[in-house]
Amino acid sequence: MSATLRLSAACVLLLAGLATPAHADSYERLLNGSFDSGKDPWWSSQNTPSRVESGRLCADVPAGTTNPWDSMIGQNDVPLEDGQPYTLRFTASASRDVTIRTTVQLAGPPYTTPLDQRPELTATPRTFEYTATSNVSDSHGQMTFQMGGATEPYTLCLDEISLVGGVLPPGGVRDLGSPVRVNQHGYATSGPKRATIVNPGTEPLEWRLLDKRGAAVAQGRTRVHGADAMSGDQVHVADFSSVRKAGTGYTLAVGDQVSLPFDIGDDLYDGLRRDALAYFYHNRSGIPIEAAYVGDAYARPAGHLGVAPNQGDTRVPCLPGTCDHTLDVRGGWYDAGDHGKYVVNGALAAWQLMDLYERSRGQNDLKGTRDGLLRIPEAGNGVPDVLDEARWEVEFLLRMQVPGSGLVHHKTHDAAWTGHPTIPHLDAQSRYLYPPSTAATLNLAAAGAQCARIWKTWDRAFARRCLEAAETAWRAARAHPDLYAPPGGEGGGAYDDTNVSDEFSWAAAELYATTGKRSYLPFVTTKLTADGFSWQSTGALADLTVARLPGRFPAAMSVAARKRVLSVADGYVRDMNAQGYANPYLPADGKYVWGSTSATTNSAMIMATAYDLTRDRRYRQAVLESMDYLLGRNALNQSYVTGYGERASHNQHHRFWAHQIDPSLPTPAPGSLAGGPNSGLQDPVAQRNLAGCASAKCYIDDIGSWSTNEVAINWNSSLAWIAAFTDSL
C-alpha cells in the first residue's frame, strides 16, 4: 500500500493529560467510537476475532502474518475532503509491548493514505492523537488499525476512537434537482399524467407542458395539496392527463422551474418488462453469464461450482454441529448484494414469476406466455421464458430438501461476509447449509405445488417431481411445525421467522389448487389485509391464489377472497390520493421499511389483481401512478430503477455490479430495483448521510448503503410482475 502523507502534526498524549480535540468546529466522521452499541460498524479481519469487553473493542491478534494489513480492525465509508485537516484520536493498549500501524486511507486502489502513523502500545492504556491534511476527496475512505507481522500473539484493546475534520456536514448538501417531479421514463397515452411540485405557496400555480422543441402544448393550474407527511414537503399537483399525443422529450414547466424530460406513449413498459426479468439471468448461480445474452460488460464465469477458488455449491456441508450430510445445491439466484441463496426469499420470487405467467395466460397477455421474450440460453425451447427463468430457482429449491426427512434447509451462504467487490467465481469462502426450518419447508411446499400445476402443460416429469417434493415438504412441516431460523448470523441474512401460520395457509392454498385434496382446506386460514405480503408474511398470497383461480376453490371461499382483494385495493387507492407523491404504500407508523419499493410494487400487484377481477379503471390508474412513484415522481426526484430516468439509481449494493468502487466492474444492469427509503438506516453510510431524514427521503444511491440501496430477487420479481401488467394494458 502506498502512503502519500501530508502530516501537519503528530503527538501522543498520556491518558492523564487529555487535550481539547483540534478542529472542534468540524465534524465527527466515525460511528460508535465508544462502542456503547456493540462493535458495529467496526470490522476485523477473519483471522482477528474481536468483541466488546468492558466498553472497549478487544481483538486477538495472531502471530505468523507478514504484512501490516494481514490483521486489521477498521471502519469503512469514511468521508474525506481534499485540503481539509483531520484529527484522529483513540485510546489503546496491548497485552505486550507492540508497535502497530494506524491509517486513514482509501479502501481500494490506489490506497491513497493521508494519515499513516505507528503508535507504540503497552499494557497501560494511552491516548494518541494525530493530525493530517487529506489529499483526496472520497466518500469511501477507511480508518484502520493494522497489526499484521506480529511474531507472537497478543490482545489489542481500543476505545474512544474519533476522527474529526472536514467542513461538509454529514450527508453533504443534497441536490434533489428540479422541484417539478415527474415519471422520468414516461406516461401511458391513455393513463393518468400527474406531477408533484415542491412549493410552499397556498395559491394554485400555472403549469405548461412543453414539447421537445420547448413549445407549450398544454397548460393549466396546479391543485394545492399542502403538507405531505411522509416527505415533509409542501407540494402542489399538476394534472395533464388530458394530453394524449405520443411523443418524446416532454417537460413540465412551473414558473421558471422545469422537470426532467419524459415520454408519452403506448409501449413504454415493454423494455422494462424484459429488463426486470433479465435481472434474474444476470444473478444466476452455477452457470456462466454469457456475453451473447448480456453483453461483454456483464459477462462473467459461473460462480460456486466447486472450481477453485470456489468451494461450492456442488458438495456443501452443514454448518458445523448441525448435521453430518452434504448436498449439491448448485444453481438458483444470488439473493441480493451478497452470494447467499435463501429458500424463503427465493420461493416468493419464483412464485411471483410463475404467477406472472398464470396471470398472463388468464388475461390473454401473449408476451407473458411467449418463448423468445428474453435473451436467455433457454430461449427457443418452446417453453415461455418466464417459466424457464423461474425453473432455474425451483430446481435449486428442490435441491435444498433433505433426502429422507422432507425438511428443507433454510439457506446456504458463505461462512463470513465476502469483501466488496467479489465476483462470484472468485469467492474463496467456505459455504454451509444452515439448519432446516419449517418456514423454508412450507415455502417449498407452496412453490412446488404451484410449479406442478403450471408445468404439467410443459414438462410432466418435472411437474410430478415438484408435486412429490411439495407434498413431502407439507408432511415434514406438519411433523415439525416449530423449527425456526435463528436471528442474526454472519456471512448472510438471517431471514428469521417465528410465526409460520401464514406459510401453512399459503402452502395449503397452493396444494389444494393443484390437487383438489380437501384435507388441505382447513389450513387455509389467513386473510389479505392492508399489510399486504412479504417474504416473512406470506398469508396474503393464499387469498391472491384463491381470487385468481376461483373455479378451483369452494364458491364461498372464492367470493370472500375476492371481497378482501377489492377492499384492500380500495384502501391503497385512498392512501395514494391522500399523499402528495402518490404511493400505495403508507405505513401506519410513518416509518418506511427495508425494501420499501417492494412494498409499493406488492401493493400495486394487489391493485392490479383487483383490476383483473373487475376492470375498474381506478385500479388500473393507481397501478400506473405507482410506477410514476418508482420512476421519479417522489420526494427525492429519484428513479429507483436502473436505466429508467435521468436521475436513476446506479450504485446499488452488489458484489459484482460494483463500478462505484472498482471502475473495471459494471454498474447494475438496467431494470434493477433499488430497495428505496428505509427509516431504519441500518448501515453506516445511511447513518452518516441521512440522520434525521423524513421517511420518504431516507435513501442514498451509494453502494455502501445496503439498508436503502441493495437489490433483491423478491423486489425485482414484483417489479417484473407490475411491468408486465402495465405493458399489457
UniProtKB/TrEMBL annotation:
Domain Cellulase Ig-like span(s) in chain numbering: 177-257
This protein's name: Glycoside hydrolase family 9 protein
Domain CBM-cenC: from-to ranges: 30-148
GO molecular function, one term: hydrolase activity
Protein's UniProt keywords contain Membrane: no
PROSITE patterns per UniProt: GH9_2, GH9_3
Residue stretches making up the Glycoside hydrolase family domain: 269-722
